[in-house]
Every structure is written in C-alpha cells, then in structure tokens.
Amino acid sequence: MAAFILNGSEVALDLPDHATLLQALRGPLGLSSPRFGCGAEQCGSCMVLLDGKPAYACALGLDAVAGRSVMTVEGLGSAEAPHPLQTAFLAEQAGQCGYCLSGMLISAAALLAANPDPDEDIIRAAMEPHLCRCGSHNRIIRAIRRAAREMAA
Amino acid sequence: MSHGFGAALKVDDGKPRLPGSLHLNRRLSQWLHFRADGVVEVKPGKVELGQGILTALAQIAADELDVPLERVRIISVVTPESPDEAVTSGSLSVQDSGSAIRHASADARRIFLSVAAQRSGVAFEAVTVTDGDFIGPQGKIGSYWQFAEAGLLEVEASPDARAKPASARRLVGISAPRRDLPGKLRGAPAYVHDLRLAGMMHARVIRPSVRGATLAALKDGPLPGDARLVRDGNFLAVLASTEWDAEAAAARITARAEWHEADTLPEQLGLIGWLRDAATRGERKITAERTAEVPAAAHRFKRSFFRPYLAHASIGPSCAVARFEGDQVEVFSHTQGPYNLRADIAKTLRCPLEKVIIRHMEGAGCYGHNGADDVALEAVLIARAAGGKPVRLMWTRADELGWAPFSPAMLVDIEVSAAADGSLLSWHSEVISNGHSGRPGRSPVPTLLAASHLAEPFPVQPSINPPLAAGGGAERNAIPGYQIPDLFVATTRLLDMPIRTSALRGLGATLNVWAVENVMDEMAALVGEDPLTYRLRHLEDARGRAVLESVAAMAKWTERAPRAGFGYGIAYARYKNTGAYAAVIAEIEAQDRIFCRRLWIAADCGEVVNPDGAVNQLEGGAIHGASIALVEEVRFDRRRVTSDSWDSLPILRFSEVPKVDVALINRPEAPFLGAGEASLAPAIAAIAGGIHAALGVRPWQLPFSPESIAKAG
C-alpha cells in the first residue's frame, strides 16, 4: 500500500511493484494529463511535480512517492481558475498536437516557482528534457515569458 | 473511392464538377446537420492531426452560414457516416475539405433562405442572416434551427451555389484560437490514449526479435495477474486487465521466445551502393521531359545527393482501442485515412467493409504515415480474443521508432549545364528511392505491419509513389520551378523493400528541394552571382518571386556581412509545384557541429483561413526541417533498426531549435494552397546554403553531421 498526496488530496493504492506512478495516475487514479511518451525519461511527456520538483512519472515506482506530494496539470489550475501558464500558453497558441504540453507546463511551473523572471537561455535550459515534434518551441518560450510577466504584475 | 488519393486527383465521372471532396461526396447532409437546439454540426472527412484543421474548417462553415463560431460543432470522422475524404495528408485539407464545406454551406444557406423567403412571402434577396436567424424587412422569418428537422439537406449539392466574395468574409482570415487547446492545456482527455471504456483491457505486442524473424520456440511459464498470450503465427501479443501486467507479461514473453533470424537489411554504410544496385531492378519512369536545342554550355557539372531513412518520431506512441460485438468491430484510431484503414482491416479479417467501424480520435502529431494504422489492426487482432471486451493497445517507444513505416532513403543525381552568363541550359536528373506510400486502402492486399506476421500471412508489397498529379512521391519537387530549356527528370522506384517505407511530411521534396537549390547555389557561385539574384532571374512565377523578395527583405539578405563561424543560405520551392510557395533564409553557426540559429520564412498559401494557424504550421515545418537537416537518421544493422530510442534517434531539443520569423502573403481571392509542408524542405536547403557560406563546403548527404561535412567538397 502506497499513500501520497495527489493534487492536494490524500490517495492510497495497493498495486504490484512493477506498476509505475504514470500507470497509476492514468489508470486507477483516472488522470489524463501525464502522458506516456517513451518510458525511459527521455521525452518529458509524463513529467509531474514531486514535492515541487519535476520528475518523470514513467520511471517512478509507487514506493518512491509514498508520503510525498505529487502534482499534475489537473492540480495546476482549472477551467475556472487557470494557472497563469495555462492562460499564457493559450494566448500564445503554444502548441500543435499538444501531446507534450502537460510535461511542458509542469517544468515551466517549477521553473517559475524557482525563478520568477527567467531569460530565454534559462527557459531553454529548463525545457531541455522535453521533446516537441511539432516545432512549437518558440511559442512555448514566449508563453513562459508571458506567464512570468503576468505573475509579476 | 478506388484510388484513395482523395480530391487531389480530379475524377472525370461525367457529373457536374463540385469543389474539393464535395465532388465525390455530393449529398449536403453528409457535410452539415442543423439541430433544433441552435447548433450546426459540420462533418468533415479530414481529421485533426494537431495541425488545427478543425478550427479552420469551423471558420469556413461559420462564415459562409453567417453563424458565430460557437454554434459550429465539428463531428470527428466515423465510418460509414462521414464523407470519405481519403487521407488527411499532402497539405490538402483546406483545399479538399475547406472548399467542399464552403460550397456546401453556401448551398445550405441558399436552400434554407429560399424556404424561409417562400413561406413568409418575402423576396429572397431581402433576407439577411444574423446569428443563424433569417431576417426579412419586417423582422425574423425563420432560422436554421427552426427548419432543422425539415430534411432540407437531403439533396445533392448544386454546382450553382456561390460562396460569398472574399470581401464579405468575416471569420475566414482571422486567427481564431484553436478549439482543442483549452482542454489539452487542462490535461483533459484528448487523445485515443485517454479513452477509457468499461471493462477495457490492455495489450502489448511482442515483436519478432529482428525483421523477418519467425518464431522457433516459446517456452511456457507463468504470466503476471490475469495476463494471457494471444498468438497468430508470428504475431504475438499479451492481454491483461491492467497496463502494468500487460507490460510485465510482454517482457516475460520476449525473454521466452526464440526466433529464427537472418540478415535481411542492407549494410547501412553501403546504403548508397545498395540504392544504385537495387535501381537496376527497379521501375524507372520519366517524370518530366522537355527537349530544346540549346547552345554550347560554358559550365557543366554533375552532383549526387543522398538522404537516409527518416522516422516520423511522434512524441506519443501509436495507440488504438478495438471492440468486437459479434462479428462487427469498432476501432478508435488516430489514423489519417479512416476509410483506407477500414479497407485494410476488412481485407485482413476477410470480412465485408460494413463489419468494420472506424472512429477517429486524435493522437500525437504524426507528420505522415506512422504507426497509427498498424496499431489499429493489431488492436483488432488482439480484440478477437477478448470476448467482446474493448482492448487498448499502445505501442512502446521502441515499436514506434523501430517498426513504424519510414520515409525511404533516396539518391538524386543531377547533371546541369549553363551558358557563360550562368543561364541554365539543361537539367537532367535521376531520382532513386523506394515508394513513398505504403498507406492502407490502395492495394489489393493489406499493407499493415501485422498482416505479414500472421499464420496465413499477406505478402509485403513494395510501396508506391502517389501520381504526379497528386504531387508525386519520390519525384515530389524533383522538377525545378526555374526556367530551363532542356529538362529531363526520371524516377526509379525500387521494388526491393528491406525496410517498409511510407509517407513522411514532404515526401521526396525533403531531398529534391535541397538538391535543386544546392545546384542553383553552386551555379550562381560559379558565375559569381548572388544566390537570390540568380534564382530571381530563373523564376518567372510572380508569386514565387514575391516570397523570395519578401524573405530577403525580412532577413536583410543584401546587407548581410561576413561573420566568422556564421553563414546565411536562401532557398525556395513551391510545394509539389502546385501548392504553397515558401522561401526560407537560414542563419547557421558552425561549431564542433552545425547549429541553425534563425530561420526567416515568407510564404504564400493562397487564401489564408487562420493566419496564426498557418504561421504555426510553417514555423513547425521549418523546425522539423532543421531537425532533419542536422541530426536525424534511422540506423540499422543487417537485421534490425537500432535507432529505437530517443538516445539513438535524436531530434532537435530546446537548446538547438532556431528562432523563426514568418511573413504570410495573404491572397484572399486565390485558391487555398495548404501550409503544413511548404517550409520544411526549403529550410533544409537554406541550412545547406548557410553551411557553404560559413565553411566553404557543400554537403551532399543528410544529415549535415560532422561526418557529412567532412565528406563535403
């Protein structure tokens, strides 16, 4: 049995050792935002915040998150009260297929929490673990800068 | 439809010509459905691939019908109800589907207004439409919603319907926000991967150890949870109630399976030789021939250009859900061609088409024919053993990068001659490549991966090239858009196909545009002329000239100054020679390897429905091109594709992605030309030009890696 905090609420699951956090989130926990991309910590599609830091959910076992806090895009904001990053990504139309965006939002949220005014090079470095195949990178960078401005205002 | 290439090929069936896909799907009710609750359903046969097509199509319908965008609901493709628009590919969605929806909407508007005018005794010309309400001189006389149930659309579209003039459009030409992004940014279910059906089981496929392997032995042993093996010949899969058990079971079966293996792939290092050798057994066709008496040449050279196999490399692995009810199967798929997929599943199951229902749901961007169709058939094969329960099959990363179809390796030889002043006299080229389409639905036997692995296997057919009228495949953009009196282009399609090939964004243009543009650069240099000036004097098409001049102005081409370690290149193409015009300037930086730092793009896509959407596509296409130019190459040994992870198949990451500026030349009165692929190949060519400007060498093989640069002359 592994118990942890998911998007602010306590959850407890009893799953075999070979189940990953990503499978638990997408399976019994019913979430869609963390997405499977590679299962090998190489693309960032599955990124979640683990105690506020980006972590690959595809490679974590449930024992690794026991007693800790996990946040996904569902916990970042809602339709009624979106996170400034969600608003900024929409304003910049920063996405095409969108498959990578959950992971992007997660790492961007961690970045802005640690550095409220990152320059472009810092943003690129923070987003380096994330692959986007549609070529939305520049829009994503603009959206993160826009969110930083909104959050500072 | 039989050819499966959609409206791109005009069918002469004796019927009055209707725009785009409306010609082959003539009933208005196939496209539009008004509801009494104030919603109009628009039913395109094209599908959302992440390119924003559904937003653009909603704009076209809303504008023509005079309803706000919010009243338009797009119905994703489901067979057999949706119009058959063949495949969503070739940057043809706005041409095929947008033209059809515009005409159908104009016709529907005319029909509804006529009925309202007749019933109320008001002159047709006196009626206007506001928010779907029909307003006569005395006020409201009806609405789309009021007549929704009257069956008014159960007619064939009239060829006489007239869409609004460009000047009257209000919603086409604005950057309406993407309809799908808000949900995706909340992490809401959006993809077939997110589909959850009651009782749904999870599956994984166990691939043959190498290509062409046959199962020799499978040791017995326990499987985790309720996982069980599903086998049909060399097609092995596991089925379990949970994803983790399916995955663990697949690992155990992999370890227990023994395969008969043999070398079936060429030596990667000898790929060029292999292409030339296979070409002697290939099918050679003349692509273009224009003979002319030309004066003696002062300049002449011959060059060869090579491109490796390329991967689509979608970020989300392919996925499908299939469910049997009796002998009928329902498939949820991110296919680009729902009807084509239906055909190949039916062929594989040897059942009537009607027994297969395809429901389109989004996947990750595919950029062409990736594993989407293959995984759909595999989900169906596994679902046969699931007793009516839905089966979700998701490929692994290694499946996607190792087993999806690839864009073929290619070789182009060009021999060119010019007069003393550099004017081109002759151009002879030979394109060698496997076919660029192994899409389902076009061959008597199924082309899907698992079909050749079954106990009763279907033979693997060598891939084909779409006809030149549809843009061609290997020969796409092999015919230069420049003035050349003596022109000869031939294309050899290989009939040996050791690695399954199919369509990837740009098809043969990826290589051909770079080859053509490289030759233009080299000839310009030979006569001491600026690459831009040289192109302009060989280019008659005013729209082509306009994009070149526009991009040159954006990037301040004529003012560029030499800068150590940096170089600028320029390139141009009209995609498929019939589609969008794009000119690109690249700034590259040569360090221990080549980086592309900036791209400027000017494009003419004809009438632009959604400018920001078009810019997004052009920007993304150019970054895709930069990635192909600099780092991408499918790798293999004699038995298997080895580049099956992001480590071994890198694509550009954030730190390597160039900044991109895009200028659109909008032509509201001109036909739609598409946007998704136009910038990709010119970006590659412009990067090659930049490399020459920085380093003085012209690479002749993709990707422009340090090895490629070292071999360049």
Can you give a write-up of this model?
The complex is a heterodimer of chains A (153) and B (713). With 153 residues, chain A is α+β, with helices and mostly antiparallel strands. Chain A is 37% helix and 14% strand. Chain A contains six helices and five strands, in the order ββαβββααααα. Chain A has helices spanning 21-26, 73-76, 84-91, 101-114, 120-127, 137-152, and strands at 2-6, 9-13, 47-50, 53-56, 69-71. In chain A, strands 2-1-5-3-4 form a five-stranded mixed beta sheet. The model of chain A has no long low-confidence stretch (mean pLDDT 97). In chain B, α1 packs parallel to α2 (93-120) and α9 (509-526) runs parallel beside α13. Chain B is an alpha+beta fold. Chain B folds into three domains: 6-183, Aldehyde oxidase/xanthine dehydrogenase, molybdopterin binding domain (Aldehyde Oxidoreductase, domain 4, 2-Layer Sandwich); 192-261 and 313-403, Aldehyde Oxidoreductase, domain 4 (2-Layer Sandwich), CATH 3.30.365.10; 410-436 and 472-711, Aldehyde oxidase/xanthine dehydrogenase, molybdopterin binding domain (Aldehyde Oxidoreductase, domain 4, 2-Layer Sandwich), CATH 3.30.365.10. In chain B, the strands form six sheets. In chain B, strands 9-10-7-17-14-15-16 form a seven-stranded mixed beta sheet, with helices on both faces. In chain B, strands 12-20-19-18-13 form a five-stranded mixed beta sheet. At the A-B interface, α3, α4, α5 and α6 of A face α3, α4 and α12 of B.
CATH architecture of the largest domain in chain A: Roll
Biggest contact: A-B, 58 and 62 residues
CATH fold naming of the largest domain in chain A: Ubiquitin-like (UB roll)
Q: What is the CATH homology-level superfamily of the largest domain in chain A?
A: Beta-grasp domain
Q: What would CATH call the homologous superfamily of the largest domain in chain B? A: Aldehyde oxidase/xanthine dehydrogenase, molybdopterin binding domain
User: Which overall shape of chain B is indicated by the principal axes computed on the Cα atoms?
Assistant: globular
The termini of chain B sit apart by 49 Å
- The chain-level mean pLDDT of chain B equals 96
C-alpha end-to-end distance of chain A: 44 Å
Quickly name the level 1 CATH class of the largest domain in chain B: Alpha Beta
Instruction: Determine the fraction of residues in helical runs of chain B and give it as a percent range.
Output: 25-40%
Strand order in the largest sheet of chain A: 2-1-5-3-4
- Work out the radius of gyration of chain A: 15 Å
Structural class of chain B: alpha+beta
Based on secondary structure, the structural category of chain A is: alpha+beta
